[in-house]
Amino acid sequence: MDRWTGKVAVVTGASSGIGAAIAKSLASAGMVVVGLARRVERVEALRDDLEDDESRNRLHAVKCDVSNEEDILEAFRWVEENLGGVDVLINNAGVLPETTLVTPGNTEILRQVMDINVMGLVLCSREAFQSMKKRSVDGHVVHINSISGHTVPNFAKLNMYSASKFAVTALTETMRREFAAEGTKIKVTSISPGATGTDILPPEVKEVMPLLEAEDIAAAVLYAVGTPPHVQVHELTIKPIGEFF
Questions:
Q1: For residue 171, how many C-alpha atoms fall within 13 Å in the half-sphere facing its CB?
Q2: Considering 4, 161, 166, 179, which one is annotated as catalytic?
Q3: Do the beta carbons of residue 38 and residue 61 sit within 8 Å?
Q4: Is 223 an annotated catalytic residue?
Q5: Beta 8-12 vs 32-37: how paired, if at all?
Q6: Facing residues of 98 across strands?
Q7: pTM of the model
Q8: What is the pLDDT, as a whole number, of residue 138?
Q9: pLDDT category, 239, cuts 50, 70, 90?
Q10: Rg from Cα positions in the chain
Q11: DSSP of the chain, one letter per residue?
Q12: 142 strand-pairing partners
């Protein structure tokens, strides 16, 4: 991670769970971290968990709802104007509402899954890529995907979630090809955790599944981002011992 010391990482959905763990890990590793979240006060509170004043000063909170394009554009403008631009993007923001595909009248809920899990990821990646390319930075885009983006678990309330994560799997390969076609060395990585004990997971799933911890995913991000410039971790799947799908 030495080559990223002082460089800027943007983490979406940084207010809790995996996003919070990633934001803290990157700040502790020497990066300047911008945590995007609707609940910015929770990102600000993460500073209390960091070990020293230098790490705390490297963590910034910016209000952003990734389902809103203007929020995304404004957040990346803030990063450019105040910190110079983005070097690493961690697309972590995601939702998993408890509904089904056949529940009457839930169109807005289903659309929200795609707006946040897919369109938010695409738009943040687009803005980060433009920042990296403009400054000739060999940056890195990391998508926090899911094993649900590779196989559909037999939990009815996952509704549109698996479809959105399958899209992330496809988008990772699409971005790899587009980044190369643009003549850059910007990396893209998909990290697909199994069940993780965060607030996003329905209680009934937590009760029957072995669980990862958010810090396990943060460690995987540090590994992927810390690889040498010629190494690209394209897909990294992480399962807890005993997971059954």
A1: 25
A2: 161
A3: no
A4: no
A5: parallel
A6: none
A7: 0.95
A8: 97
A9: very high
A10: 17
A11: -GGGTT-EEEEESTTSHHHHHHHHHHHHTT-EEEEEES-HHHHHHGGGGSSSHHHHHTEEEEE--TT-HHHHHHHHHHHHHHHS--SEEEE------S--TT-TT-HHHHHHHHIIIIIIHHHHHHHHHHHHHHTT---EEEEE--GGGTS--S-GGGTTHHHHHHHHHHHHHHHHHHHHHTT---EEEEEEE--B-STTS-HHHHHHS--B-HHHHHHHHHHHHTS-TT----EEEE--TT---
A12: 90, 189
Hey, what amino acid is at 18? I
Number of residues in the chain:
245
In percent, the amount of the chain with pLDDT more than 70 equals 99
128 contacts 177 by C-beta, under 8 angstroms? no
Q: Alpha-carbon distance 121 to 125, whole Å?
A: 6
Three-state DSSP class for 237? strand
First-residue to last-residue Cα distance in the chain: 33
CB atoms within 10 A of CB 110: 18
* Assigned token pair, 91: 């697309």
Number of H-type helices and E-type strands within the chain: 9, 7
pLDDT digits (tens, 9 = 90+) for 119-130: 999 999 999 999
Residue 135 in tokens: 């400054």
pLDDT value of position 123: 98
Residues 93, 193: Cα–Cα separation, whole Å: 14
